[in-house]
Amino acid sequence: MFRSKPSLRRPLAVLGAAVLGLGAAVMVASPASAHHSEVSVKADCDTATGEWVLTWTVNSYAPPGVERYKLVNVVGKSFVKGEGTEFSLPGIAVTEGNSYPHTVGTPLVATHRLPGETNRALLRVKAKWENGHREQEFASAEIKLGGTCVKEEEPPPSRPPR
Q1: How many CB atoms lie within 10 A of CB 86?
Q2: pLDDT tens across 98-150, in order?
Q3: Taken in order 98, 102, 108, 113, is the CA torsion positive or negative?
Q4: d(Cα 110, Cα 73) in Å, to the nearest integer?
Q5: DSSP-based three-state secondary structure for 34
Q6: How far apart are CA 123 and CA 130, in angstroms?
Q7: Residue extents of the structural domains in the chain
Q8: How far is 15 from 65, CA to CA, in rounded Å?
Q9: Cα–Cα nearest to 80, from 147, 141, 142
Q10: At 92, which helix (H) or strand (E)?
Q11: What are the residues whose beta carbons fall under 8 Å from the beta carbon of 104, sequence distance 6 or more?
Q12: CATH class belonging to 34-144
């Protein structure tokens, strides 16, 4: 009986195809996730005034070599009993003209005060980087406040003991 030696050709071909497929998937996926923005928000109730104090943060990420970006779309909105009102934030606003004033990796931070009865607020942004890449979808954050921030009543003056 004649037996031939097992060939390594087939297992090597399968392994090579798997490596090529994985490499192609990484090349296609990487550029899409390299540029992006993130928005976050934190809220505190200022009981001295009965207002919500919201701190908004926008972070931008890009591949190495891309250092600057601008905001091309910014929408801020707060809601009281379902009725929405737009607001703007100093420092987190649409960039006019052709400049790219913001540094990738350096957060933009703005504080905003809202009435105590505000139920929720949201901020949505789109960025464009100096290499021409532009976000297609909004990066956003929303916070539900519940409309329960109230001014603390001052205690009545205390009487000295008799």
Answers
A1: 8
A2: 999 999 999 999 999 999 999 999 999 999 999 999 999 999 999 999 878 99
A3: negative
A4: 16
A5: helix
A6: 23
A7: 34-144
A8: 34
A9: 147
A10: none
A11: 60, 61, 62, 66, 67, 68, 69, 129
A12: mainly beta
Q: How far apart are CA 107 and CA 125, in angstroms?
A: 13
Q: What is the DSSP string of 74-86?
A: EEEEEEETTEEEE
8 Å CB contact between 129 and 35: yes
Copy the structure tokens of residue 45: 């109730």
Nearest partner of 87 among 60, 59, 52, judged by Cα: 52
Q: What does the block give as tokens for 162?
A: 């008799």
Residue pointed to by tokens 């990487």: 30
34-62: per-residue pLDDT in tens? 899 999 999 999 999 999 999 999 999 99
Confidence grade of residue 8 (pLDDT, cut at 50, 70, 90) = low
- Tracing tokens 């071909």 back to the chain, one arrives at 13
* Residue linked to tokens 């392994």: 15
Q: Is the dihedral of CA 56, 62, 64, 69 positive or negative?
A: negative
pTM: 0.75
Classify 152 as helix, strand or coil. Answer: coil
Which class for 69: exposed (0-12), middle (13-18), buried (19 or more C-beta within 10 A)? buried
